[in-house]
């Protein structure tokens, strides 16, 4: 019984209670009136549901006593059970329970995923981007499931406080590839950074910050990147006045990718080992897909803009590709990440 949820236990108790009254009444009537089993069950259900088609002919006194017992004690219990079952169904409890069980099954096999802590504006934007790039993720938020947007209704959602270790563990932090801490409180985001790094030292943490004084603390705690949405927004608006066409072009490539992917990064460690030490041109990216290599990040973290095709592919590096959406899709099929 431990494997059943509280809802399933309640339903089981209600169904068993109803069946007990039906069967006891049927067995008693079979004994007193020598009815067939089907006739006894039929009469017992009619009595318990208050349908009633009258008393059968030659009904004995014992049969009448049994009927009185069913009407006094069984009818109320059965009607209460049927009403409770109907309420569970119409209140959506069955659907909620099904979704929770589905989440638990999905979580068992989930790994190398991303955890989004906080589902406000920043969390939603992050989720849209991850969906676009087909990256598995889990959402943690204090608000219950029904308060989320319909577009995220099929995502894995955990209702709870992301600063608590048990909630992070429930979200699979020990097997996660990255975590996005985008709660409105810098203190809460700091707790998430510390806890996630303790539970999984290899996890990559991206944190939001509201105050510039918090950036150093978050990075010291282990955050690889710290983002200040207000600062980025202000700089972006100023850039739209200084170099509007250039900024809009970059936005169209990177930020407007909520519907289309125009840029892709390929990690050399996920390529076939035969490409390590070979030239970039041997990947045959442009001839086969039409995409162009626009950047390269080497093992030391240095960036090369528009690298020459004779550049040798190194381990622990990253190749940046630019192309039209259908070209990027072809590239993803060639070199899945």
Shape field? elongated
CATH superfamily of the largest domain: NAD(P)-binding Rossmann-like Domain
Order of strands in the sheet with most strands: 3-2-1-4-5-6
Number of domains: 3
- Which segments are poorly predicted (pLDDT under 50) over 5 or more consecutive residues? none
Approximate strand percentage: 5-15%
- How many strand units? 10
Structural Rg: 31 Å
Helix content: 40-55%
Task: Provide the CATH architecture of the largest domain.
Answer: 3-Layer(aba) Sandwich
CATH class (first level) name of the largest domain = Alpha Beta
H and E string: HHHHEHEEHEHEHEHHEHEEEH
- Oligomer state equals single chain
Computed structural class: alpha/beta
Sheet having the most strands: 6 strands, parallel
Protein name: Potassium channel protein
GO molecular function: monoatomic cation transmembrane transporter activity
Domain RCK C-terminal: 251-337
Subcellular location: Cell membrane
């Amino acid at each position: 019984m431990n494997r059943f949820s509280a809802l399933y236990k309640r339903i089981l108790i209600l169904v068993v209670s109803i069946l007990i009254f039906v069967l006891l009444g049927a067995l008693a009537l079979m004994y007193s009136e020598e009815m067939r089993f089907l006739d006894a069950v039929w009469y017992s259900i009619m009595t318990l549901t208050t349908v009633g088609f009258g008393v059968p002919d030659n009904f004995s006194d014992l049969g009448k006593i049994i009927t009185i017992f069913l009407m006094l004690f069984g009818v109320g219990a059965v009607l209460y059970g049927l009403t409770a079952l109907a309420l569970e169904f119409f209140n959506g409890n069955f659907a909620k329970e099904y979704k929770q069980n589905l989440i638990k099954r999905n979580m068992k096999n989930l790994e190398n995923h991303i955890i989004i802590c906080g589902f406000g504006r920043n969390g939603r934007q992050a989720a849209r981007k991850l969906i676009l790039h087909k990256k598995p993720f889990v959402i943690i938020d204090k608000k219950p499931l029904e308060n989320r947007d319909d577009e995220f209704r099929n995502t894995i959602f955990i209702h709870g406080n992301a600063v608590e270790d048990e909630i992070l563990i429930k979200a699979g932090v020990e097997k996660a590839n990255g975590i996005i801490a985008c709660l409105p409180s810098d203190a809460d985001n700091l707790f998430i950074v510390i806890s996630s790094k303790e539970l999984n030292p290899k996890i990559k943490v991206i944190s939001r910050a509201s105050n510039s004084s918090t950036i150093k603390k978050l990075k010291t705690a282990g955050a690889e990147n710290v983002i200040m949405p207000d600062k980025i927004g202000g700089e972006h608006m100023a850039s739209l006045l200084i170099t509007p066409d250039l900024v809009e072009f970059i936005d169209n490539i990177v930020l407007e990718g909520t519907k289309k992917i125009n840029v892709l990064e390929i990690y050399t460690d996920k390529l076939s080992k035969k490409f390590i030490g070979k030239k970039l041109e041997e990947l045959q990216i442009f001839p086969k897909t039409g995409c162009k290599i626009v950047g390269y990040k080497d093992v030391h973290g240095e960036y090369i803009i528009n690298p020459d095709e004779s550049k040798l592919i190194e381990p622990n590096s990253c190749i940046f590709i630019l192309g039209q959406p259908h070209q990027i899709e072809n590239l993803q099929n060639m070199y899945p990440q």
